[in-house]
Amino acid sequence: MLIQLAAAPVFLGLFYIYVRDKYEKEPWRMLFLGLLYGIYTTAVIYAVGLGLEKIFPHVESPIYTSFISSAGVEEVTKYIFLVLLIWKNGNFNEPLDGIVYGVFVSLGFAWIENIIYVTHPIMGGYSTAFSRAFLSVPGHGLFGVQMGYYLGLAKFFRGKKHLLLAFFVPYLVHALYNYFLLEKFSFFWIPFWILEVWLWWSALRHIKELVRISPFRE
To answer: Are 45 and 109 in contact (CB under 8 A)?
Structure first.
């Protein structure tokens, strides 16, 4: 049952973004590859994490965890895999595709990460599954929207700055997201919920914008 609970929010997110791509659906093979690439990132992120633990064995501060070992490693890896998957692929033929594939890669990673957390003998369980279903998994999907949005702008509007934003925006919001959750002071719940609302508002606005300017819209 825990495995199903770990998968449920992932596939809800994938279904939602698939439905929103209403003018020119992506091939199933490419969507599967996007999900698979996200799963592959898990192994790379785990390996890099082990390396960082050997280099910095006693560093466990919220700032280090949030900005380096978590958001830093994860967003760099997802960015590289996403670019390798779609940048020169002919199926990347409208800006919205950046968001579609960004979400598939991000949720592929989130799927495996979620299984690891909810089945953990100490940290896992139903409470972990439910809390992650409402926070962590959607969070990864929202970071993927930010990455894909700017990557789409970079591809079709020749904006070099957008290539940088495609990494730095999801990295920064992911790092702050984790930092506000890891800090033990109740005060940090205020900026956390502000950030949470902004992430949803921004993601829905980005999706709506790129759907509206789709070249396949009749």
So the answer is: yes
Say how far apart CA 161 and CA 79 lie, in whole Å. 15
> What's the residue count for the chain?
218
Q: Which of 179, 26, 6 is nearest to 109 (CA)?
A: 6
Contacts of residue 77, defined as CB under 8 A and 6 or more positions apart, other chains included, come to 41, 44, 45, 48
Per-residue pLDDT tens over the stretch 70-84: 999 999 999 999 999
Burial of 76 (C-beta count, 10 Å sphere; 0-12/13-18/19+): middle
Q: How many CA atoms does the CB half-sphere of 185 hold within 13 Å?
A: 7
pTM beyond 0.90, yes or no: yes
Query: pLDDT tens across 134-185, in order?
Result: 999 999 999 999 999 999 999 999 778 999 999 999 999 999 999 999 987 8
Three-state DSSP string of 126-195: HHHHHHHHHCHHHHHHHHHHHHHHHHHHHHHHCCHHHHHHHHHHHHHHHHHHHHHHHCCCHHHHHHHHHH
**What does the alpha-carbon distance between residue 152 and residue 126 come to, in Å, rounded to a whole number?**
37
Residue 12: which residues within 8 A CB-CB, separation 6 or more?
A: none
With a CB cutoff of 8 Å and minimum separation 6, the contacts of 88 are none
Q: In the structure encoding, which two tokens stand for residue 213, read together?
A: 């300017």
